[in-house]
Amino acid sequence: MIIQKMHDMGIRSEHAYMAAFASIGLSVASWVGSLKMEPGTGLARADRWGLFVGEWAPTFFGLGLALSHYEQQDGTLTGTVHPLREAG
Question: Which segments cross the bilayer (predicted)?
Fold first, then answer.
């Protein structure tokens, strides 16, 4: 139901996968940023920021898989499939 609503809103599996990879990058950036901008708070605080943002990635990957499965059933999968050619 939720996946269908997301699909109807125009959210596709590619969007969820991009969000997952972006959250991985944002996790590293927030860790480094917290480490450099707040040097007195120590490594533990930077780790908490990095882990907080890093926990989003599996959720986005899961949504991407669910949306991809729905798109395959619905017939709206946007990926290009090339048939295999026979060698020879």
Answer: 16-35
Lookup: tokens for 67: 């949306």
What phi, psi does 56 have (nearest 5°)?
-75, -30
Return the percentage of the chain with pLDDT > 90, whole number: 43
Collect all residues with Cβ–Cβ distance below 8 Å to 12 and sequence separation of at least 6: 67, 71, 78
- What's the CA angle centered on 34, arms 31 and 38, to 5 degrees? 155
Exposed e or buried b per residue across 25-64, where buried means at least 16 C-beta atoms within 10 angstroms of its C-beta: ebbeebbeebbeeeeeeeeeebeebbeebbebbeebbebb
55-87 pLDDT, tens digit per residue, is 889 999 999 999 999 988 877 666 555 555 666
Q: pTM of the full predicted structure?
A: 0.72
